[in-house]
Records
---
Amino acid sequence: MSTKSLTKILEKELGPMSFGGFLRAARTTKSLSQTEMAMLLEISKSTLCDIEKGRQNVSIDLAAKIAKKCGLSEVLAVECAIHDYLRKAGLKMTVQVRKSS
């Protein structure tokens, strides 16, 4: 199953994907507490909580670094981060990210 089709299925069930939701799903899939994940990412637990709850957006480069550090899809992480910024700006736009060759 492609990342694009998985994203569409998840969005239909859970609503729009966000970087915070992506990160929370990854953390729970890996059976990590917020404290453990925060230590892995070298950030505070409160910062992780703010990211997961959507109170704090992450930059595109930080989204990619977090994904790489956690062994997650950098493409999906960056796409989610961009969509967070578009939603925050009130822009009804979508972006599809793919790795360049």
Note: The mean pLDDT is 89.
---
Amino acid sequence: MTLPPQHLPEGQPHDLVGVGIGPFNLSLAALAHPLTQLRTAFYEQRPAFHWHPGLLIDDATLQVPFLADLVTLAEPASPWSFLSYLKARERLYPFYFAEHFHIRRTEYDAYCRWVSENLPGLHFAHQIDSIRWNTRRALFEVDYTQLDTDGEARALGRTHTRNLALGVGTEPHIPEPLKPLAEAPTVPVVHSAQYLDNRERLISAHHITVIGAGQSGAEIFLDLLRARPEGQEKITWLARTEAFAPMEYSKLGLEHFTPDYTRYFHQLPESVRDTLAPQQWQLHKGIDADTIAAIHDELYRRTQHGGWPDAVLTPGVTVRTAGRVATTRVELHLEHTQQGTRSRLTTDAVVLATGYRERPLDTMLAGLDPYMRRDTSQRPRIDDHYRLVLDPTVTGAVYVQNAERHTHGVGAPDLGLSAWRSATILNSLTGTNPYPLPNRTAFTTFGLTHPHPPHPHDRTDLIPLTEST
């Protein structure tokens, strides 16, 4: 289908166009809303807001407190806060008495959907096709396709903007050995992102294998375990990590998810950042203690009449290869890293709780490639205001959300830093500091030099060490 583009009048460019409407760009849109001097628009390919719908398991909670909503940690008085949502739903008193510091994922999803349905300037069912820099007009050109209810092209459009915010999120990661099976319709090999859509099919399988020891893998294992008859669980849980390890959740450990640590990490040399990031997996890829306790309690409960549940939990295992047995079963070829041993496992269904990866931006930003500056690993360079480092001839800014882990650290995908990042972007974009942010956010001083202006009561007798000291 070829449709004529719909051009905006040449004199009416946007100040900011957001690509993608997940929690992070929704946060940006919510904090931009009261800034009436900004002309903004946000585009999303999906027909409506949904946050990880395949993982909205009953009773699963966020791993961050409810204060980590879209706006509160930058502007507690915002009308788009979680408490404002509760007020609009006449649920403030029930929430008050429930004493839930960590809310259910389903409730967070409903809150974000409430914001998306009431906040102006959001355009769902709009697929961004290309982005270019128009040198003559000193504007970004954004081409999009408006989709109908069946996901087919309904109209083509183009808009112009001085600045962009990319919030396209992440995509499910499927390990190479399992990709052919995940794409085969007759074999139930599904990523955790599609878990609830396939839950009944998985439960009915004779034997189930869950791969991945993060929070999603633990929640899915627990949900499947609870649904299986006692003594006939027939469920295996495999993980590459050396243990089913708890997430680092001490109060000082959590300070790695503060703006102070983000600033510290950003200032480190690229080689140091690349070495450090994989070592911090337990900060964001572990399992919360309550889920571990619930799994142990469920397994223990099934021993009370004697015997052990038919469940196998094995860490330290990698899947080398995988293939079909007949048409509907799967054979996994396993290797135990520490033992140096190999084995085979035949199973009827596999759930891949193997995480997510940042969506590649190269295709969408192909038109900007000549202007982009990259690091030694050919990743986009991103400055401390979350802007892509572009050629000086590009006078507009391209901000990124949750695509900067290599430059800003483990906090990039964390909901608790979303409002801070959105405020930082808007302060940078407007140059007027509409959201004053604190200079210091952690008791820990990361490094021997202060990344923030000293407070009058801070010690000033710490002197950075040099080779000559």
Note: DSSP finds 13 helices and 19 strands in the chain.
---
Amino acid sequence: MPYLNGESSHWLALSPPHSSSPSPLPTERQDLVIVGGGMTGLWSAYYARQAHPDWQITIVEAKHIGYGASGRNGGWLSTLLPGNRAKYAEAVERARATDPTGPVGSAGLSGVESVRSFQSALFDSIDEVLEVLEQEGIDAHQVRGGHIDIAQSEAGMARLRELFDGNEEYGYGREDMRFLDVEETRAHINVDNAQGSLFFPGTARIDPALLTEGLARVLKNQGVRICEDTSAGHIGKGQVSTNRGPVSGDTIFVCLEGYSDTVTGDLPGLEGRQVIPVFSSMIATEPLSADAWDAIGWEGRECLGDTAHTFIYAQRTEDDRIALGGRGAPYAFGSGLPGDGRVPAEVVELLRTRLSSLFPDLEVEVAHAWRGALGVTRDWCAGIFFDADQRIGVARGYAGHGVTATHLAAKTLLDRASGQSTPLTALPWNDHYSGQWEPEPFRWLGIRSMYRIFNIADEWERVTGAKRTSLLARFGSRLAGLHE
């Protein structure tokens, strides 16, 4: 049967239609102007309003609230840190040696201790997001069922053991994760050929469109101006130019993630080509029958991941579909953007086949396919920046782990803008420089080659029954800057 392809996402397709009449631009100078109506921008406005009830706050959004990654993601409010932990730790050690009075070096923490603080702050963010949703009456279909990473091979189990050890080093306690054997794993989700899994109880499943739209509704009721259909152009000290006219403000936050290249200006953390859009695609099935769910389980509404190099992420939705995402056609030459999210047919088939490998006895029909753009830096680490002279702040580079990180980024940006030293301004993503991406065509060739290597490595491990991660996959991870 034909399926819906594009139209942003399954989540947004179920939402009420957006108004065709954008709010008028403010004529008076604003205290805070936010460029980007995704989760970072919305959380920034929310906490700015809590701290400063008298501020004039405006959000400008090129399309509509949640149009980018914030409305297209897999809905994991997860414990996953947005970046390579070893690279953050190394950067902290360099900062302590070269800039001991800077926001990171002055904290006096070692690199590992700094990353452990980062992880702790992310744990706190999950709690805080869920508290805000409850307090503000936002129903985002949130269920704190945890997330489960399942291995379907011995090599995958070896990676889970490495992950467990790394998590312990960088801030997870024994209450934050535990191994499940085959029977325990299948009691959660009956995945074919499951060898075991790691379970992380802290993660919550959400509907990302309901979260963003709920926050926007609260902000409008609190007097925050949200100007949709308003494309920002040049951003400079005190002013954002848009297709509808200028907006002036004392402080400006740029929260564009994979769309960062759509604006110009001397912007901290965005000089040159530091961020590129990398695509992740998703499918949502038609609702499954009660008999199908009896066979699968998944009663806890856990978020589901796996240990493949070309990994997947999935959830059981509120209306009993499976929404599953993964890579496929990950990058467009010249850092092109995904538009309305239409997915090539071969990628839809790839995801459907991957779903069948998890549940081979399940007959499913794809109802909707879409894709979105992740903001990815050269070392896959996120960064928070604030230029005190221009009073411009930037958050970027979540690399697909942004649902929790956007909340923490917003609070960190506001602390940076305040000029105060706080525990958040000492976290290692502050002023983290990731380097520049290679020029085209090397960038396109490198990214395509990386994913090709991972595909070959997955197939090699499957065919050979390898007990450890293949050398090819380890090479690919180092090439991509993913290896810790």
Note: Residues 111-135 form the longest helix (25 residues).
---
Amino acid sequence: MVNIRCKNRRRHGALVTLYAGAGLTVVATLAAFVDRAGLADHIRAGYPAYGPGEIDSAVTAYTVILSVLGALGLLGWLGTAWAVRMGKGWARRPAGGLLAVAICVALAALTVQDTNGEVGLAPLLGWLQVLPCAAGLATVVLLWRRPG
């Protein structure tokens, strides 16, 4: 009976971190829409010869890319939460895989240089991609811990 309680407590903790990660993913995704001006300023600083149309196109491209990544991330969070809620033991593996992918995306957002030699994504938006990874790490640790 004690192991069941520990297992349920661990499952509850994992669900909390999964939903927190989903929320952080939504925040990171919406930030691209909220901070369009900051993203435009970042692009304008890196490409002073760009006109308003080119800057708007670049901002739109980044917004679309971040939106697609955010939607895929949200699907990953919710799918994993469903598996954990249903008590599926295999949920650990996709959670770990999704964390690895998320870390790669966050590192790319922070480090990939544009053709001008500067980091392509505005730093604030890049760092916001890291926040869901922290929740993902907590989730994976909770899912892989042994009960007891």
Note: The chain is about 80% helix and 0% strand.
